[in-house]
Model the fold of this input.
Amino acid sequence: MAVAVTQAPARPFARPRSEHGFWSWISTVDHKRIGILYGVTAFLFFLVGGTEALLIRLQLAGPNGKILSAEEYNQLFTMHGTTMIFLVVMPTAAAFGNYFVPILIGARDVAFPRLNAFGYWAFLSGGLFLYSSFLFGGAPDGGWFGYAPQTIGRFNPGHGIDFWLIGLVITGIGSLTAAANFIVTTLNLRAPGMTLMRMPVFVWMNLVVSFLLLFAIPVITVALFELYFDRNFGSNFFNANLGGDPVLWQHLFWLFGHPEVYILILPAMGIVSEVLPVFSRKPLFGYSVVVFSGIAIGFMGWGVWAHHMFAVGLGPVANSAFAASTMFIAVPTGVKIFNWLATTWGGDLRLKTAMLFALGFIGEFTIGGLSGVTHAVVPSDYQQTDTYYIVAHFHYVLFGGAVLGLFAGVYYWFPAVTGKLLNEKLGKLHFWLIVIGLNLTFGPMHILGLQGQPRRTYQYPKGMGWEFWNGIETLGAFIIAASILVFIFNAVKTMRSKEMAPPDPWDARTLEWTIPAPPPAYNFAEIPVVHARDDFWHRKYTEDENGRLVRIPAGGSDEASGVSGQGTVATEHDGHDGHEEHGDGHGHGIHMPSPSYFPALAALGIMVVAYGAVYHWWIGAIGGVILLAGIFGWGNEPLAEEH
Amino acid sequence: MQTAISAAPHTPAPGDHDYTVTGIDSRKLGMWAFLASECLFFGALISSHLLYRARAPQGVKLPHDVYDIPYTSVSSFVLLMSSLTMVLALAAIQRGDHRRLRLWLLATAFLGTVFIGGQVYEFTTFTHHGVNLSSSVAASSFFLLTGFHGVHVTVGILWLLSLVGISLRGQLPAEKHLQVEIAGLYWHFVDVVWILIFTVVYLVPNHH
Amino acid sequence: MADEEQEATGAVATEEPPSTPELEAAPGHDQLLHGAAGHAHPSPAKYVGIAILLAIITSLEVAVYYINMPDGLMVAFLLVLAVLKFSLVAAFFMHLKFDSPMLRRVFVAGILLAAVVYTVALLTLRVLV
Done:
């Protein structure tokens, strides 16, 4: 008969235990630290992607640009797009999701802490692997969407595209594991009383995004492998000579690619849904409708992908069907916009930087949405497609939308993470510069697109009349760059300063403001019991007969509790038989998962396999050994060590 | 001494370390989420094959021309039976019979290996007939689909063998049956994908 | 190293909700939200029965393959039989029939989504038409 208890197997390397220093970051399984890793890394990639954009804009500032060759230009716009989408916007959303979803639902961590860490390391490996292409013969140059047959071996020798393919497979694995983790966390680990319809909208949007990732990542993974095999092992998926069909690539890519754009925007929409109520001192208007619209967008997002293929020749039936579905999907988005506006209507608005960014999101995203509606009209899209009009559209929704929304999150949540407030004056300067900059950069692109300036073209000739607006766009891009410098200055200055923010500085509504900032490892000394949506708000305020807010004396974050900065949280569960909830209200005796090197090791193994996939099989074999070591080590160690 | 799972199953209550709001163990829910994503993965590979199954240059054999249905029926049967042995392994650990657990896990791994071996032989035969990854898009799509399936089976075999090793070390008591169950879910899914592949790729006529 | 001397909880720790290592939940399917019918697991004999059924269906499939019939009819038969096998494995071997409906929903969501989007894509490529 098996014995229930045995000795732990001897391990060559000791389990990490430190909580400070470099190695503690490599081995962390704390969702908050992982969130910070995602956020900082994504920001660094943002600077790189932004530099790529500036180079593009310098090349296009005047006609017959000579700064970049055509090949260099192709690499730059490919890397710019790939970076911004996969290495900036998605990981920044992951940063916020990682840091805040567990706290917002009243949990101590995600369901799978080590898998969570692995997701970050996979992102980093994939990103570094992709960028190493610059050192190894050139970056990919096939656009962020890698259309075959431009990307097959015959037309694209060299390794650039392979770096792109494998790099995205790796980041995709990271996203997939993160998605499964968030789904299980959100469904399973909510605090008592936190029903689904009491969850903050940001948590809902993150859940929808997780399902989108769960189902979309596998599709692009197949496409990436098919192209990889075409390029490296002689298969013929996209080899037209043998009957390969480039349209298959487009289907597989856009089946992923369209849900992907909702993956990019929904987290920002979730953040806006958190920020607007706080800075209007009003609840979100139509919470259920906003949530259901998000879910609807998630569903309907699967029905529109071929609107990226209107000019490919699928035929009038397919084109019409997808045009109709594309027009329909504007509806739930529009619904959200109206609900956001209604939230601010009649509210006691405080125009802090976070609020400005959230309001900016609404305006800029709407502009992007409107151009999107024009794309849905197939004949008009025939003219727009592959012109700068499209570039205008997606930059308005992604930069004016996602990026502004994410910055709203940065300003809003900065005090929750660091305990400090970013400077408001600098924040406002950042905001106005970036809004001016983005509109100068992307606004004229509508005009130039309608005038026929094509995308992905490294030069335009003199005499087209395009010089003026291109010049303005380049100016706008540098204004954006200036705004980012302002932000960096603000962030560095704030982190250096010793000035701490008061607890709950925004007088906010949700659980992350009930715990100290920075939060302790275990988040909540005692798991909260939730009685309502915006539970924290209702503990602080009630309404009198005239509907005016009345502060409840005993509620709030720093009054009743004897511990500085700790939220007053009603709890019912002290746990059973001394295990989970030893909590004495001061966080002692709460066991958290122990740090582990294995997630990082496994990701490193994958990265080495990646080089093997591009170069030699035996490099891949070495990577495989490292990966297996990582997996077996991970499987063998218990989640938490006893102390 | 641990024997069978106690007659009164432990249902986690709020505050217990393994309490979940849905009542479903997190690892189980996570595995099912992963399997749902795999539907999209294999669906794309199957669809690529459906698109390409009849496309080959003049005079070049299609995979369909070289299939040996009786042979593949036998290997399909082998994989199907491995699902039986897998579920018997789970039943064994649930009643605390660790010898049988290991026996059935090994049987499952063995049957899986026979399946893979059968595929290796099958594919080698195909290449002798001029049907290989490069010979046509039909063949490309066939080999990528079945190849990825084979990789999944192989990963499963390694997983099962690991479980045997852990059990031999005495570290897989009856209370940890969920680990076997989750490996089983993965294994059955891989079998289920083959059920689809066998039907859609091998049996469905290819007369276009 | 102090860690090695600690009581091991079992070498293969998979990701559990954070806490001290504990006994795992027993199946408890019967306790689950929807109150599934009575007892948790089919007996080994029942599993063997399902396996025999699967083998029979497979033989039927192969038989259909060899019988001369219009393509459309054969495809219909084969698909029905495949779906039947798929369902038997999912319901019984994977225990979906007895588990929480949420698991079924998650899995079916994946299957349905795949079926729909790939069918549409193939239709636009003039396959399946």
In short: Chain A has two domains: 30-496, 601-634. Chain A touches chain C through 47 residues (CB under 8 Å). Chain A is about 60% helix and 0% strand.
